[in-house]
Amino acid sequence: VDAARARRPAPPGKKPKGTRAKKGWLFLPDMPDRPELAQTSALVYAVRLGRPTTVRALLDAHVPLLNAQDAWGYTPVCYALHLLAKERDSVVAAAMADMLLERRPLVNLRGGVERPTIMAPVVSALISGDAQRLAYLVTRCVASLNTAYVYLPDVPAYFTGLWERTASQTQSRVPPLHLAVMHRKLDLVKLTCDLGANPNLYGQPLDAEKVRAKRKKEYDAECEVIMAAAQEIAENDGKLRWQSKARLGVMAQLKKLKKAIASIEIPGWSKPHPWVTPLHLAARYGLPDICLLLVQRGALVNGGGAA
């Protein structure tokens, strides 16, 4: 909130600090002062500047701005909860968030796994560990815990120092239940599961489609090698059976060795696997109570789709 107030316009007769130059390059239009405020409504502007009295006035006036999105697709409640997650002890941020949540705004953003964002209200509530507002979002505002994905390296980028060693290295987009496990609190994980979180949803890298296409290509190549060896054995009536088996065995062993080397995780050098489930995270942290809870709630021990 203090940083937002510092960005307020300067008093009359004085120039505001830190404004961008309006002059663009040759034959190009002038640049806007604040491109991040594109298509910003008055309610979003008041929330981002930390003005609770203005937020209350706009809400009492029944102005249809509660669910109005800016150019980035975010609503006032997204900015309010994000600001509260960054400054958990801020009375101003808590007041603005409660005023907006009282009106039951729309809290489900579009995109899901294809567009992970740290600005989703349920993500902000779980990052701050705010169990009361998380329950209110799900029960009163119909928030979904299975469609709001977040890119893990964004957490330490926007919230300095939070889960730095784990989140910054795991380049994966995960659902909110993973964030609850990263808090290492049994009550928060239990609440998230009670609110409808699916324990079998798993994290994926940003290039998941390319990875799947690569695996399919490797699988097709292996099938071609096997089919060619079988056809050669059939044509030669068993004369080259031992040669084909030996050649096929060497190729299979080399591919297995290549996969084994690529899957080795060296602490401090290699990055954790992006295909991770909440059960994987609980096991990585060494949390037997949370592991047992997830298994009781239906988590697949073999990893499910992430295996």
Automatic annotation (TrEMBL):
Keywords: ANK repeat, Repeat
Region named Disordered: 1-23
Keyword Secreted attached: no
InterPro entries: Ankyrin_rpt, Ankyrin_rpt-contain_sf, Multifunctional_regulatory
This protein's GO CC annotations: cytoplasm; nucleus
Coiled-coil residue windows: none
ANK repeat windows: 172-204, 277-306
Biased segments, Basic residues type: 14-23
Record's keyword annotation contains Chloroplast: no
Protein name in the entry: Uncharacterized protein
Source species of the chain: Chlamydomonas leiostraca
